[in-house]
Amino acid sequence: MIKDGYINIVNELRKINFLFKRILLYDAVCAKLDQIYNKRWSYLLIDFLVGLSLFLMMRNATFVNRFAENCEIYIMLIQRLIEWLMGAPGGLKLNKPLNTALGSFFIYHITLWRRYLYILRPLIHFTALSFNYASLFGISISLAVLYDSISLFTVHVFCFYVYAGRFYQLQLNGLISLGRLFRGKKYNPLRNRVDSCCFDKEQLLLGTVAFTIFFFLLPTIFTYYVVFSSLRFIVFVVQSVLLSIVRQFQFNRCNDEESGLMWSVFKALKCVLFGTLL
């Protein structure tokens, strides 16, 4: 009867996998149910003992009360970083109108993020407590809560990275297309190839002006892209470390090469270098 109950729970969770495929807590709970169903008591015992040790070490810690304050400090640091970019970062002379527009755009999102955290302030305290008491169910559950909390409270970093990445891709695609114009080439989307094409003087003049504008605006866009992609990369590395630890404590799911720490970091670095979204 108990075994049938576990089977039903796992089947119901798998039915809604498409909703929770990016939530690590869901995967950790499913893995723990699989271990219970397969009677892997030694794995469960190791997971529980490590989690209990973490709970005893953090029982008297003050991070729960300071978690909301640290979130506010984190927002202030991001805002100061954007204000620094709006000046002359590292002595670089960026395009002032575009720099001001981008800085105001991101600072506006910082304001929205403050309101978002103000609404979620009770959830922040609950999340900190959940991370502490989730250790009683095993270290994998506790780290899964921490992983999902990082995803929740760094949404603005991901949004900044997406915005800067889209701007950067637009600049690169524009420069590549206009570079083909000077060589008498044009991309043919129907055949997915570059064909020869004849352009008149007006088109060449307009292309020259557009290429010049795109070229001189590229350093400003690239600066924002480097900064926000670096922040996103740091968050991704931290989450990859947590994911790797959780996979190690799941034992039966740690053999996937693509879920390894080094492989994940390599893919993230490749995405950042080539301007693709992470």
Automatic annotation (TrEMBL):
The chain crosses the membrane at residues 41-58, 123-147, 167-183, 204-225. It holds the Pfam family Gpi1. The keyword ATP-binding does not apply. InterPro entries: PigQ/GPI1 (IPR007720). GO terms for biological process: GPI anchor biosynthetic process. GO terms for molecular function: glycosyltransferase activity. GO terms for cellular component: endoplasmic reticulum; membrane. It comes from the Eukaryota. Keywords: Glycosyltransferase, Membrane, Transferase, Transmembrane, Transmembrane helix. The keyword Glycosyltransferase applies. PANTHER family: PHOSPHATIDYLINOSITOL N-ACETYLGLUCOSAMINYLTRANSFERASE SUBUNIT Q (PTHR21329:SF3), PHOSPHATIDYLINOSITOL N-ACETYLGLUCOSAMINYLTRANSFERASE SUBUNIT Q-RELATED (PTHR21329). This is Phosphatidylinositol N-acetylglucosaminyltransferase subunit Q.
